[in-house]
Amino acid sequence: MRNVVVTGLGFICSIGNDRAAVLDSLKNLKHGIAPCPAFNDPKNPIRLTGAIRGFDTSSKDPEDWSWPTAYTVKRDILRGFAPHGLFAYCSLLQAIADARLTPSEVSNERTGMFTASAGSAGMLHHHLTRMFESGVMRCSPMGVVNSVVGTLSFNLVAAFRILGASCGFASACASSGHALGYAHDEIALGRQDRVIVIGGEDGNLETILPFAGMRALSTVSDPRLASCPFDEKRSGFVGTGGATTMILEEESIARQRGAPIHARFTAWGQASDGYSPAISHPEGLGLAASMTNCLAAADILPAEVDYINAHATSTPIGDRSEILAIKQVFKDGKTPAISSTKGLTGHGLSMSSILEAAFCCMAIDGQFIPGNAHLVTPLTEAAGLHLPTATTSAAIKFALSNSSGFGGANVSLLFARA
Questions:
Q1: Is the pTM higher than 0.90?
Q2: 90 and 186 fall within a common domain
Q3: Confidence bin at 245 (pLDDT 50/70/90)
Q4: How does DSSP classify residue 284?
Q5: Residue 337 and residue 229 share a domain
Q6: Are residues 324 and 196 in the same domain?
Q7: Within 13 A of 392's CA, how many CA atoms are on the CB side?
Q8: Cα 35 to the chain's mean position, in Å?
Q9: Where are the beta strands (DSSP E) in 174-219?
Q10: Is the pLDDT of residue 333 over 80?
Q11: Active site residues
């Protein structure tokens, strides 16, 4: 099994549109949650999102969009994008520059691309409405590729001339965790030398608001109080969108070309709850098994883990379930520091896993632990666990990132100081 390292990171997210801005937000606990004008409807109790700044993708015609002038997107590429396709394109350009990859290193048979998204509900609604109202021949020929699940793969594999393995993953909030895990295995088993992994979500009304029907969204209107993972007053999550790109490489190849190495991607594990299509197992059994499988694959003890970036979304059931899962696994010896960065970002749905995995790499690289923003009164089940409320310097060798999705899909990713 070959070693896998992380050499490139790119971000378009609520707490920053590049690595430097994201690092500043993590260290100083600057949240990106703000009122969303599109949600301002008396029939709708939801008011907040994790806001993506510098982009206007409100039109259903991509040619009407605007984005930062640092990025150039050709018209023929833009036409196939959903909003998160544009976010992903920009984050991917960042990651390529961060990893110092040449065009030939991106486009060859030993470089693959795995993506994760739920598709674009907004674009799909727009195209279907047009089809029923005006007839199918009045629809955009790009209506399928810019709306259905797989839209990121369709567009970015073509745009960047990817010749290696490519695949899209859809397992709800564990999607980009699965994409990272299977990308790890492609490299570790020698099938690929490099895999670009991308997760993205539109983060607009059509993507987020349906979760209110599940009673999963916070109705709190104060951005400082709405997303408060692990707090007794938590009432639901705040949705967000954007995109995150991570570039994984075989370690010796990365070192040979002098690439920056943010962390080693040591191992991953997964397990299912087999309990409910929508909520976590009340005792956290599936997530506990996922973490156990991950640590076994890495051949390390729970006491060796220094930091856990928790999935905790600020929902009453989910946060409690994860705390109980962590207590099952980390019951002897040293207890790791635990934080949920969703207090800063909001919940990025299928993007959340890769976003938080990237945060773990930055924490390892910078030797710090992000605090739990907006945590005032920890839930009673967390007694005895270390939930820091401020960002602290720390010697981190191993960091674990958890994700859980609908249907009880659980993924745990372990990163180490290289």
A1: yes
A2: yes
A3: very high
A4: -
A5: no
A6: no
A7: 15
A8: 22
A9: 194-201
A10: no
A11: 173, 311, 347
